[in-house]
C-alpha cells in the first residue's frame, strides 16, 4: 500500500502524508473510510508509531482526515470548491520556487514544458 524510501532526504512522515493525500485526492480512499490504526500501520511498515502519529496529525491539521477518539482516523469528505486560502498559499510557494528556478539558470520555456508534461501526466493517471 505504501512505498517509503528510507534513503530519501524527505522525512518518512512527509512521504506517508503525500501518499495518503494522493490516495484521498484520487478517490482510492473514500470519504469517511477508516485509516489503518497507528499501531497496525507502524507494524506493517516497521517504523516508529510516533512517525505515523505525526503524519496523521498533520493530515488532520490540513483537513484531509479527522479523528474520533476511541474509534480511529477517517478520510474527510473533500470539498471540491476552491479553498482560496490554501490556493493563495500554494501560489505564493510556487512563485517563490519559480524565482529560484530562474535565478539558478532555468528558462521560462523549461517551466512551460514542465507544466504541460505535468498536467498531461496527471490527466493520464486519472483515466
UniProtKB/TrEMBL annotation:
Matches recorded under PROSITE patterns: HTH_GNTR
One term of GO molecular function: DNA-binding transcription factor activity
SUPFAM superfamilies, per the entry: Winged helix' DNA-binding domain (SSF46785)
Record domain HTH gntR-type: where: 10-78
Any Pfam family matching the protein: GntR
Keyword Transferase: no
Taxonomic superkingdom: Bacteria
Name recorded for this polypeptide: GntR family transcriptional regulator
Keywords for this protein: DNA-binding, Transcription, Transcription regulation
Organism whose genome encodes this protein: Salipaludibacillus neizhouensis
Gene3D superfamilies: Winged helix-like DNA-binding domain superfamily/Winged helix DNA-binding domain
Amino acid at each position: 500500500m505504501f512505498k517509503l524510501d528510507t534513503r530519501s532526504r524527505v522525512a518518512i512522515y512527509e512521504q506517508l502524508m503525500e501518499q495518503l493525500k494522493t490516495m484521498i485526492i484520487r478517490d482510492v480512499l473514500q470519504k469517511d473510510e477508516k485509516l489503518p490504526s497507528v499501531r497496525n500501520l507502524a507494524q506493517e511498515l516497521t517504523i516508529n508509531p510516533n512517525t505515523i502519529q505525526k503524519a496523521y496529525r498533520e493530515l488532520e491539521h490540513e483537513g484531509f482526515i479527522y479523528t474520533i477518539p476511541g474509534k480511529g482516523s477517517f478520510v474527510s469528505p473533500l470539498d471540491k470548491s476552491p479553498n482560496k486560502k490554501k490556493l493563495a498559499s500554494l501560489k505564493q510557494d510556487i512563485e517563490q520556487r519559480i524565482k529560484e528556478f530562474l535565478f539558478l539558470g532555468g528558462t521560462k520555456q523549461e517551466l512551460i514544458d514542465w507544466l504541460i508534461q505535468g498536467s498531461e501526466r496527471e490527466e493520464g493517471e486519472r483515466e
